[in-house]
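Chain A, query sequence.
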Amino acid sequence: MIYSFLLAIAVLGLSILISLPLGKWMFKMMCPAPDLMGPAHRKVEGFFHKVIGCAAEADQNWKQYTVSLLIFNTIMFVVVTGVLAFQQFLPLNPDGQKAIEGSLIFNTVTSFVTNTNLQHYSGESTLSYFSQLFGIMWLQFVSAATGLAAVTAASRWLGGSRERNNFYLDMCRATFLVILPVAAIGATLLVLCGLPMTFDGAAVVHTLEGAVQTIARGPVAVEVIIKQLGTNGGGFFGPNSTHPLENVGFYSNIIECISLVIIPMGCVWMFGMITKHRKHALVIFAVMTVLCLVKLGCAITFESEPAVALHDLPVAEASNLEGKELRLGAGASPLWAVFTTCTSNGSVNSMHCSLNPLTGLIPLVGMWFNITFGGIGVGFLGLFTYIIVGVFICGMMVGRTPEYLGKKVETREMKYALPALLMHPLCILGGMAIFCLIPAWGRDTVLNPGFHGFTEMLYEFTSSSANNGSGFEGLGDNTVPWNIACGLVMLIGRFIPIIFQLAICGSLFAKKEVPETVGTLKTDTALFGVVIGGTVVFIGALLFLPVAVLGPIAEYLTTLVH
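Chain A, predicted structure.
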């Protein structure tokens, strides 16, 4: 267990160190100062303006920015739906992949447009190379860029910047100047580690026993790195990063694990630079880091216990090795499980369904909070919603108008904040209620009956609403009800909060700045960090503790009885 803790601390510490210069780079690329741009940067910016045309010249308010964001994502949805619907007629299909069922197309396209990457299919047996590259992987870049563009605009409004806000420019900068260069470096490192990168079809080999084996392969490295960096999570292969061709060993596992968090971490530093409130950003980063450390400590401790089936055997002192990749080590699994659900990534390097009951609760908590670094951009915006609620509550408690970054937080902002906050639990608990009431939709698709089966369904709705994409995988989720329900939840969980969060930022931007007084709650102190953390924990507990008791906690208590 000591090794597991040391590995977790080392990976988290290295991720933080990388995120600092990355955050500065993101700031320079997303908010370029004309007098500081070099010749190459000026040419790139000029190219963006030429490609976008007159639309790039508009200075958009929050409503116009949001409409542009929604229009662009709708176009993405239509284009990739066409790619998947007609993949059997398109090139780069050496393995002859067939047509895909309609509800699965809807679920898959929705999943990747919303940066969720929930997969009710196995990529190597369902999608052609063309679908993987020009449908799935393209969405992994632009859906991540959508979140980065949104947090950049929000940061400008919160900081009172008069710099031009334009969604299309921000999308180009995020895609080509931030995500693509980092992905190129990461993909090169993964190829050096041994991940395949080829357009050849599946390899047919003869084993030592004389049997014939077909080994799927393809342009794996490029898709794996963007699935990690873009907080996407959708793997080239069905087993995701448990597959030896997606995650070949210790070093590739470290690279992929670090890639999970560095851009979400960089978003926090970029926010501080744009708003010119770097100490406030440091407080936010500290809160996120503390929550991450708590979850890491709990997950590693809970998973150090053996599986229930081994309790009476001589190996009872071993950690839970069920569902683990032994070539990566048992300690790598709880670390990845926490990171992937802290960042709404959803990729896996072990079977989450095989985690000990309380360990399985930790990824659920990460997705319920959905703010511990979170998805690119939207993770910070999620915490921003909690900040607004926490500031408002504190202001009311001391009998004065709440303020945040020099702007008054009033009734309008709370009207926007509450739907953004409550839509997440509504999608999870509402979906669970419906599928528990209809056995053919829910109970009959569960592999494990009882409390664990309840957790399987709970995890699926939680993952969909949090735009995470991981699953317990004991669930027969490739059915029409699951495909449609999860698709709708993913759309609501992605875009409704973004709309209201941008509305809050736009509303605060329009207000006059008020002078700081002795009664102002300072945003760059440890007290403010406690307020943020307390708001997240208390609201999260009120919303989700009852359903946690019905699932993983009840399962754990039954193991004590047996």
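The beta strands are 203-206, 212-215, 403-404, 407-408. DSSP finds 18 helices and four strands in the chain.
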